[in-house]
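User: structure tokens for this one?
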Amino acid sequence: MMQRLLLLLWCALTWALLGAGPAAGGDPPRPVAGNLDLSSWDFNRGGVKLAGEWRFLWNQLAQPAELAKTPADGAFSTLPRPWNEEAAGIRGFGYATFVLQVRVPAGAPPLALWIPYLNSAYRLWVNGQPAAAVGKVGTSAADETPRTLPAVAMIPEGATDVELVLQVSNHQHSEGGPNHALLLAARDDIQFRHGFTLGLDALIFGGALMFGLYYLAMFAGRPQESGYALFAAMSAVAALRAVSLHNLPNFLWPELPESLFLAGEYVAMFLFLPLYVLFLNSLFPHEISKRVGMLLLGLAVALCVTVLVAEPAFYTRLRDPYLVVLIAATLYCAGGVAVAAWRRRETADLLAATTLIFGTTAINDSLHYMQAIDTADLTPLGFVVFLFGHAVVLGTRTNHAVAEVERMSSERAALNADLSRKVEQRTEALQRSVDQLHRLATIDDLTGLNNRRHMLGLVSAEFERTARYDRPLVLLSIDVDHFKRVNDTFGHAVGDKVLIHLGAMLRNRLRATDAAGRVGGEEFLVLLPETNLDEGLRVAEDLRRQCEEAHLEADGTAVRFTISIGVAPVAGTRPDLAEALKRADDALYAAKAAGRNRIAVGAVAPAEPAPAAPPASGAA
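Assistant:
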């Protein structure tokens, strides 16, 4: 939608510049030989540019009362154009008087003149009365006070014959004289034009300054985005040109020198182009060459240095050659942006429409300043569109960048969540693997009891605690009676069933502080900490009885089994693990020898004797 509006604006602008057709009734008359007859012109249809032949008095600052003494058939100058183009020998520096006799229709609305800036000071009389003055007209640089401000001069109401006497002097610019046409129109129209011109410059200055500060702050936050810095610099240059072109601060500080504003205008003109090319390069690096921008920047810096060190009469001569560079670079930028739009680069279509409008106004002003065409200064209007369009471009790119960051942040959050979930899953799987490895390393697969290695480790640790605190401990060595007969009669599956049942009995009967393990095929070891012999015998008897009373079935056949248990009590401050295990095994063998399904007790290990006291001193 924005692109279409900009294209329509460009079409309307082009149509206006090409002169889509005269107003009804034809074009207004033009001054001829210092006379302009507007008696038949209807000022309700519009104003009239006083572009044509004015009476020209070179090197004279004649006042209206003195004109009667000068021949009426003197030289004439076709305005607007610099007087140094009038004839050989007339230089830019000098002074002159221009005279025009205008006849206006009776009953015309109140009229006024709009005078754009003229190089470099002027004074206007209307019907012999001072009407406007900008700067101080002088016959030398010492006498002259240059100023380039637009002004409004009122035409006496009811007057049908109007004499305009315009004194102009120039001892600053390389071109002197009225290089812009005066406009005669209804007062309301003139006052509107004057206010609009100054307001537009103020708007450009304020808008450019605002954009410059905003994107400078954006660049401070994201220094990797060179486009922000370049656009801020472009905005600052545009603000400088707007404030310099019509000397806006002169309304508040009239003592400021004109040379300051003239230098600001030219510095802004020279710097804007390379900054714009580099800005476009930051947006479309494949279509706009950075080398071209740097080359133009080097040229602009050299020209700016010239402005700072040289006199205005010299550096103002650089305008026309630089305008050729400006036109060429503008066409280059327009072509690069068009290629970017054809390649569907982001925001290239919007930028193409904006560049087209601004380029059209820049080329118009370039030709207008070179006196090739007689239109108007349209760069301020084009730059308003330029600022707005490029701000939209940067804003759109920023929004897209923010949206992309948000999308990437969302994707990263999802990836992090997925990664966290996978880490949790892998951690759980690893923990299961560790638990499985621990189980494989410590647990007997068949019975679920501790395996031999782990069980002996538990017994060894408990022996250390028993020795430290001198606490009682009982070991039970258990063996299934005639287990080979069970396997041979019922099969190994039934034998495994017997072992599984015995393991379950041990887990159910023992305390949480007790430990049981399978240490052989049908051999088991039970550790009873904090247990004396009587308590250990009760536990052993409970286990023996439960096994004796157990009923297992295998293919409909009852399977009975019994166990023999060897009980080895442990006491003392220095128990021996190997000795205790041997006593438990010896007691087990004794129970089997006594007929199986029995409990036998191993001998209690004798306590170590206390070390003998040393003999008394002097004993035999």
